[in-house]
Amino acid sequence: MIRSGNRLTLLENGAEYFPALIAAMDAARHEIHLESYIYTADATGREVAAALMRAARRGVVTRVLLDGFGSHGLAPDLLKSLRGAGVEVLFYRPGYGFLRPRRSRLRRMHRKLAVVDARIGFVGGLNVTDDHAGRNLAAPREDFAVEVRGPLVADIHAAARRLWLLLEWSRIGLRRGEDTWIKADTRAVGEQRAEFLTRDTLHRRRAIERAYLKAIGHAREEILIANAYFLPGRRFRQALAQAAGRGVRVILVMQGHTDHRLYHAASRALYRFFLENGMEVYEYHTSELHAKVAVVDGHWATVGSSNIDPFSLLLAREANLVSHDPAFAQVLRDRILLARDQGAHRIHHQAWRSIPWYLRLASWLAYGLVRGLMGLAGYAGVYDGGKRRAKG
After folding, report:
1. DSSP alpha helices (H): ranges in the chain?
2. Is pLDDT above 60 for 264?
3. How buried is 47 (Cβ within 10 angstroms: 0-12 exposed, 13-18 middle, 19+ buried)?
């Protein structure tokens, strides 16, 4: 549902996000809820942990929900300190491994969000980890989040509460004592319109994908997408091609450096399709592109955790904010284009065709392998928009 009366603040990278998050936590009086796919015990992770522990020690109800796979390596000493200070920590699908049924082992809690005192929300793509972590790159990882104030925070808060209580129930078969979640503040604090979308395996299985497809279908001037793991299915690809065919400028900014080489190679297999259908393709090389953002026609914009790939769109729990505000869309568009201009290079059709055949073959083999993994999970036909239904 689109809510009016919000104030949205775009936050780029950890340099803007973590100070805002920690400041909100330090001002918390009643409740903090944090969700992250990855939480690492580096300098950033320990700074956030310190803020969580400070809050818990002064009586703030403090909850942290982490993914059992993404955060399985969280340092035991940090986890012990958090719990010792009174921070409640739960893991989504703990003990995640290959002994689980094939679909279960692919499902994950990929959301990155926070809610403080049910009046300030944060939604985006940043895990709790240093911007420079994981790669020897001079520039920080490129990513975005949004600080939200206003009526929309109630939707973020409700989604956080729903998942937390579901996991509590699954652990012990009943909810632990009295529900301590406070009531959200729904007063208007601004004039911006936005909606909060989640993706899960029950009632909102295609909410984020449908929002993208609707925006793309109505586009008349420009579609700008910057996405870390961009491997769209047939329906999504066709929507982009149809937009380009009716004269819409389609700009795709993707990773040049990646921590998942298989996915990177598989994504490159689609470059020919994009280029032959008149789209602009860029690879970001200055650092690692981790963003999951888009702007359409200068008024529709999204920031969140959802990649455009089968795992985000079909298997993971995701959360995206969608803004229907031209001012916010313009700020995000400017940031994306600046990152593109300063850190990406364009892939031209002729240059791509001149790449050695064996490298292009490797991309198609990688794409086939990813499709094969989807097939093993029973989702290949569904993702490509076919009539075949997922098994089971």
Report:
1. 13-26, 43-57, 76-84, 152-172, 207-218, 234-245, 261-268, 271-276, 310, 326-343, 349-353, 357-377, 380-383
2. yes
3. middle
The CATH fold assigned to 3-192 is Endonuclease; Chain A (3.30.870)
- Does 341 participate in catalysis according to the annotation? no
Q: How does the average pLDDT of the chain come out, rounded?
A: 88
Identify the residue with better confidence: 194 or 168: 194
| Tens digits of residue pLDDT in 7-38 | 999 999 999 999 999 999 999 999 999 999 99
DSSP 199: E
- 297 is a catalytic site residue: yes
197-383 placed in CATH 3.40.190.120: no
Strand partners, 66: 36, 91
Positions of CATH 3.30.870.10 in the chain: 3-192, 197-383
User: Which member of 297, 299, 324, 384 is catalytic?
Assistant: 297
What average pLDDT does this structure show over 273-289?
94
The full length of the chain comes to 392
Q: What is the pTM of this model?
A: 0.91
Catalytic residue among 33, 157, 264, 292: 292
Contacting residues for 356 by C-beta, under 8 A, at least 6 apart:
none
Given the residues 112, 132, 157, 264, select the one marked as catalytic: 112
CB 12 within 8 A of CB 338: no
Q: pLDDT-based confidence at 106, cuts 50/70/90?
A: low
| Alpha-carbon distances, residue 335 vs 16, 100, 143, 223, 341 (angstroms) | 13, 41, 10, 15, 10
Residue of 33, 132, 264, 290 marked active site: 290
In angstroms, rounded to a whole number, what is the distance separating the alpha carbons of residues 93 and 76? Answer: 18
- Alpha-carbon distances of 326 from 208, 241, 292, rounded to whole Å: 20, 25, 19
